Amino acid sequence: MKLLTLNFLTCAIKSCKSSPASFPLHPRDATLEIIESDLNLAFLRNILPRLMWSELCTITRELGLPALPETVPTGEDMVEKKEGEEEVASQTAKDLHRVLLETGIREGGLVCGNCGHEYKVLEGVGNFLLPGHLV
Amino acid sequence: MLPTPSTSHVNFDRVYEPAEDSYLLLDTLSAPSETGFLRQRFNALSRLDHTNSSPPLVLEVGVGSGVVLAFIAANAESIFGRHDVLTLGTDINSFACRAASQTVQSAVQESHSHSIALDIVNGDLASCVRPHTVDVFVFNPPYVPAELPDFAQHAAFSTLSKSDSSTTFEQDSYLLELSYAGGVDGMEVTNRMLGQIPHILGPSRGVAYVLLCAQNKPEEVKMNIRLWGPEWRAETVGSSGKLAGWEKLQIVRIWSEVSS
User: Which InterPro entries match (chain A) (predicted)?
Assistant: First the structure.
């Protein structure tokens, strides 16, 4: 499960939705995997305003990954300045691509900060189905 | 005609096989009227409002084989006029999640599309999706008026047991029922989903496509959606089948028109 996916997920329990603590879900005992993919510079530049940056920093910290910049990078930060040539992805862009799209949770749990419910990730697939008594 | 993604790797004993309803979604989403609407709504260049230039997130609930989401991901440039579309899916059937994930990844690779395929998660409708993040929502529901399956068996039936390498006939029947049985009027699952739509769609550009059959009483469904508020719209934008037939299908587009 890609870390960028976590930017769009929250606790499935209805009563948690109104609590800010239900996002982000916190990884627990996670085994990570790297699946390499092509870097899409236009995408990285455009996605920046959609990223919940401080929450993303929390997730990477909890996973023990290299720290992200404290503030969200700008579109210009994504490009290496090279005059007269085609745009080249900067190290910041490469690092962000690595974290958001190539790093995934293979096995482990995702815990809601509000109710404490743990969702399992098995073979890279997150299970957000709730047991009957929680629906 | 845009190419239909391959689903040859999918085991159709456990996962819904693409059928007339799936193809109606593909045809509708790639018809000039819809691509025109979507390009205008999501084209970064035509919008001055900065928030509208971010990549659209497409969510499909109940992906099944993944053929619809894969089609959108692979043909995003033709449909949206963009190279940066994000796709996310859910299904209640864990076998479908794995199959659809492969369908989407393969379609993106083969088409050399620039779309970003996020995960297919195992979940109930869109209950795990963060509110107001979805730009394009797609739902091909279990729409047949038939008794809902007994969810008490779900945990046991949705995975392979450790000792078995294949699913049982009972298991397959249950998984198939999940894909078509919609309860009273075929609307019990769809009504729950419609209740979530205003909460998951992005406020300024969100749009939903929901498939209905004639027995779902589509005119009534659209009237009820318009009662959500004065800004809500619901229109039929694609249909198939004979008017007098039981299987007459249609795609309803649901969106809000926020005055700017």
Answer: Trm112, Trm112-like
Q: Do B152 and A129 touch (CB under 8 A)?
A: no
Across the interface, which of A1, A43, A101 has its CB nearest the CB of B84? A43
Q: How far apart are CA B27 and CA B126, in angstroms?
A: 24
- The interface predicted TM-score of the complex, written ipTM, equals 0.96
Residue A67 burial (CB count, 10 A): 8
Express each pLDDT in A106-130 by its tens digit.
999 999 999 999 999 999 999 999 9
Closest-CA distance of chain B to residue A97, Å: 11
- Cβ neighbours around A105 below 10 Å, total: 23
Superfamily designation of domain B20-256: Vaccinia Virus protein VP39 (3.40.50.150)
Out of 1.10.3720.10, 3.10.100.10, 2.20.25.10, 1.10.260.40, select the CATH number for domain A3-134.
2.20.25.10
Q: Which residue of B has its CA nearest to A18?
A: B131
> Residue B198 phi/psi, 5° resolution?
-60, -20
Which residue(s) pair with B235 in the sheet?
B253
B residues 214-233 lying closer than 8 A (beta carbon) to A:
none
Encoded amino acid at B95, one letter: F
